[in-house]
Design a protein that fits this description.
The protein is mainly α. The protein has one domain.
Length: about 325
């Protein structure tokens, strides 16, 4: 009892984590994310490994003939680019994981007497909700960490290109942002489920939001982007100078503002922009130092973290009406 009184947030979080470990729901869904991420990764890794082997064979042949390596250009390999498919899986399935985890965490306190019993103890409402939030954060971030670690290991073993400390730090940064991204959907669904009269409606609204911000808005933005109509970009393929690009874009500035606004309304697009830049998936950032990228992408970073933090505060700060929640 003393431990419960002195550390209510930790105790409630520990109980939720223990419950999640027993029912293995988050473990199962995380397994699906890992499978999807690794499936999208392996194909590209095998292709990269073939390129590396081809280069090494050519180099060995030249050396055996006593020739200089100056006659063969040393290619630059960027294994982190292969994480593109994995990031896209995180965007979609990771958000679903956050929704389902948030729904389960909230609905478990409805329609039963456990919440009313807890609220009779020396526990404040915000402490109870903070414990639920901490449990969700620990469970989801740990699951994502395992997936990112598996992806890094798969790259190391199958791509033929070793990952350096800089590569691992980039993956770690993206993992932190991915955790905040998933917690946005966790917090949103938890709030809706705990305070709407019918939990099923909360789940439907959460998935409607997921559909709009994860699938619809990013797709609209990509489809309406004139430069995306050709692989690699129209301007790049036609080798249009930067000054000419700016002049052409000025002709449809209003259209571009609307299109970009639709993309900017999607937290998924912010996560994609940040991740693609940090990992060097987008050609513009390939081989670029991490520091300038983080400075340039701080807007996307702040958008994700402030949204996650705002929902966390909203989730924890609102008082609980235990009688209402137990009358189901």
């Amino acid at each position: 009892m003393s431990d419960f009184t002195n550390h209510p947030v930790r105790t409630i979080a520990g109980k939720d984590i223990a419950d999640a470990r027993r029912d293995r729901f988050i473990l199962i869904v995380t397994g699906f994310i890992a499978l999807a991420a690794l499936t999208s990764l392996i194909t590209g890794a095998v292709a990269l490994s073939t390129d590396v082997a081809t280069y090494n064979d050519a180099k060995a042949t030249l050396l055996a003939l006593g020739k200089s390596l100056d006659s063969i250009a040393a290619p630059e390999f960027y294994p982190l680019k292969l994480l593109r498919g994995a990031i896209e899986q995180f965007e979609i399935i990771g958000a679903v994981l956050g929704i389902l985890a948030g729904f389960r965490a909230a609905v478990s306190e409805r329609g039963r007497q456990t919440l009313a019993l807890i609220m009779t103890r020396p526990v404040k409402g915000w402490q109870f909700l903070a414990g639920k939030y901490v449990a969700g954060l620990v469970l989801l971030s740990t699951g994502l960490l395992a997936v990112f670690a598996l992806a890094a290991l798969a790259l190391q073993l199958s791509s033929g290109v070793g990952l350096g400390l800089g590569d691992l730090s980039r993956i770690g940064i993206v993992w932190l942002v991915a955790s905040a991204y998933v917690m946005v959907f966790y917090g949103l669904t938890f709030i809706l489920t705990l305070w709407m009269k019918r939990p099923a409606n909360a789940l439907l609204i959460s998935f409607a939001v997921w559909l709009l911000v994860v699938l619809v808005a990013p797709q609209i933005g990509d489809t309406l982007d004139p430069d995306n109509q050709v692989a690699g970009g129209v301007f790049k393929q036609l080798q249009v100078p930067k000054a000419e690009q700016d002049r052409i874009k000025a002709g449809y500035a209003t259209f571009e503002t609307v299109r970009n606004g639709i993309e900017a309304a999607s937290i998924t697009k912010h996560f994609e922009r940040f991740s693609f830049a940090v990992l060097g998936i987008k050609d513009t950032y390939t081989g670029k130092a991490l520091g300038p990228i983080l400075v340039e992408k701080q807007g996307d970073f702040l958008w994700i973290f402030l949204t996650s933090l705002g929902l966390a505060v909203l989730m924890i700060a609102r008082p609980i009406n235990a009688n209402r929640l137990t009358k189901e």
